Amino acid sequence: MRFDELPTPCYVVDEALLEKNLKILSGVMERTGAKIILAQKAFSMTAMYPLIGEYLAGTTASGLYEARLGHEEMGKENHVFAPAYREDEIDEIISICDHIIFNSFSQLERFKDKALQAGKKVGLRINPECSTQDGHEIYDPCSPGSRFGVTSADFHSDLLEGISGLHFHTLCQQNSDDLETTLHAVEEKFGEWLPQMEWINFGGGHHITREDYDIPRLEACIKRMQETYGLEVYIEPGEAVALNAGYMITSVLDLHKNGIDIAILDTSATCHMPDVLEMPYRPPLLGSGEAGEKNYTYRLGGQTCLTGDVIGDYSFDEPLKSGDRLVFGDMAIYSMVKTNTFNGMPLPAIAIQHKDGDCKVVREFGYEEFKVRLA
Predict the structure, then answer these.
(1) Measured between alpha carbons, how far is 84 from 47 in angstroms, rounded to an integer?
(2) Which of 240, 168, 220, 239 is CA-nearest to residue 199?
(3) DSSP 13
(4) Do you know which Gene3D superfamilies this protein is assigned to (predicted)?
(5) Which residues are bridge partners to 296 per DSSP?
(6) Residue 133: which pLDDT band, with cuts at 50, 70 and 90?
(7) Does the first or last residue of the chain, that is N or C, have fewer Cβ atoms within 10 Å of its Cβ?
């Protein structure tokens, strides 16, 4: 099957582009000795796990189901962090994870001994209270009142026995200068305890595979923590693994006019690309321009009854017509994992584009996926 023969709507992951990202990440590992693991919350397409496993050290999870996925489908190092763990899930989590990272000292006191008795590495998430983001408080773990991590004011050094590592996650789609700033804050507030640790986890949000990313600065940050404190360094990007490696193919169903030209698509912002509404985020659309840049501007919207189910305003060289296929870029990360069936919208098919250009649909969805979600 060729690209233009795929059904719509359809997510397509480009194997060659994914491997290009993985080689960049693998290069960082080879030059520094750091370990990079996949944050499954951003990308968890298991059909690509064999390829990812060739390059990365493992996976990280945000709870039991992701932990099971990493354990069963990747089978390498398996880390987990959650703001709190459930009593009825913690035994299984401990049995399948190598690193168990706790969010508070109360959670540590409750479950640490179980993890240590099972021979697992125990970590604590810290909050360096160092916000480096601009305008995206919803994605800022260091924002005031954040529920993530222990601050220096609430740090109990007398409860550190058995803890072998510290974890922080403060970034979102950021460069290594922000990591450098964050590391200074980590050292300032938690530096006295770093020498007694074995490892440190820099969390995610590192856009390592973006063209303008400063990889030498990242590697300098890694080496400084290795050489100064003797720490093993982990990094757990999600977006960087599949950044710009996926597409969403959609079709124009109808054209409408209400002061502006409107195109109704067979995809949906709220169901298939929710970051468009949450972030907000304007996904790239191949062959299009900004509103007014090209001759014909359309507002692209979905099929649902939600008034705000709008992807954005795009312009084109030629008028759109029913049946036209549009291809959005950068649709592998935080889109596939967030899909939902609101309003009875079908989930998009999922396909792989292999290196030779051939495409294969690996998953299709129908009415049953909508029906079984609710009793």
Answers:
(1) 30
(2) 168
(3) E
(4) Alanine racemase, Lyase, Ornithine Decarboxylase, Chain A, domain 1
(5) 316
(6) confident
(7) C
In terms of Cβ atoms closer than 10 Å to its own Cβ (0-12, 13-18, 19+), residue 323 is exposed
pLDDT category, 135, cuts 50, 70, 90?
low
**Residue 226: both structure tokens together:** 């290795």
Q: To 5 degrees, how large is the angle CA 113–CA 118–CA 123?
A: 60
Residue 103 to residue 81: CA distance in whole angstroms: 8
Burial class (CB in 10 A: 0-12, 13-18, 19+), 69: middle
- Cβ–Cβ under 8 Å, residues 59 and 37: yes
Average model confidence (pLDDT) for the chain? 97
Domains of the chain: 3-11+246-331+339-371 (2.40.37.10), 33-242 (3.20.20.10)
Query: Residue 63 corresponds to which amino acid?
Result: G
Give the C-alpha separation, 91 to 94, whole Å.
Answer: 5
Whether 317 and 324 have beta carbons less than 8 Å apart is answered as no
Instruction: Tell me the sheet residues that pair with 353.
Output: 14, 359
One-letter amino acid at 162 equals G
Residue 183: how many CB atoms within 10 A of its CB? 21
Asked if the bond preceding 346 is cis, omega within 30° of 0, the reply is no
Which residue has tokens 């291809």?
Answer: 327
* Rounded-to-integer distance, Cα 181 and Cα 200, Å: 16
Token duo for residue 183: 């590391």
- Nearest Cα to 304, choosing from 331, 344, 335, 276? 344
pLDDT of residue 109: 97
Cα 88–Cα 89–Cα 95 angle in degrees, nearest 5: 130
Residues whose CB falls within 8 Å of the CB of residue 109, separated by 6 or more in sequence, listed in order: 159
- Residues with Cβ within 8 Å of 368's Cβ and at least 6 positions away in sequence, in order, are none
pLDDT at 140: 93
- pLDDT digits 0-9 by tens, 177-219: 999 999 999 999 999 999 999 999 999 999 999 999 999 999 9
Tell which residue, 347, 204, 336, 335, has the closest CA to residue 281.
335
> Looking at residue 280, what is its pLDDT?
83
CA 88 to chain centre: 27
